[in-house]
Design goal:
The protein has 2 domains: 1-50; 52-94. Helix 1 (3-21) packs antiparallel against helix 2. The protein is built from 4 helices and no strands. With 112 residues, it is mainly α. 2% of the residues are buried. It is 80% helix and 0% strand.
Length: 112
């Protein structure tokens, strides 16, 4: 780990500790994302600037691919959350229902 990332990392920890003491857990997550995100961004930029233009374009295309993939993953996660919510709402109250529960054996016997 470089001296810069150690300094930033230790600064992030100190900042996070201050926020944690104040009871602001979300702020801790934001602080870590900010500090460590900046370290990664700096590393990417440093390496990217050393590449020939043709390879820089290839990196750009890969970043665009990853962006689209992240959007798809986010959409799938959101859809799953809505599906779970929908099902939960649809069956709400059924646990108190007095209808008999049928087993697979009951169903097989009925359809013989």
């Amino acid at each position: 780990m470089s001296e810069t990332s150690c300094r930033i990392g230790s600064s992030a920890v100190k900042t996070a500790q201050k926020f944690e003491e104040a009871g602001i857990l979300l702020a801790i997550e934001i602080a870590f994302d900010y500090y460590y995100g900046m370290v990664v961004t700096e590393q990417i930029n440093s390496k990217l600037q050393k590449l020939p233009t043709l390879y820089q374009q290839e990196v750009l295309h890969f970043i665009e691919f990853l962006s689209q993939k992240a959007m798809r993953d986010e959409a799938e996660t959101e859809e799953k959350l809505w599906t779970d919510f929908s099902l939960t709402q649809a069956i709400r109250g059924l646990e108190d229902d007095d209808t008999p529960e049928y087993t697979e054996a009951d169903l097989k016997e009925k359809w013989r």
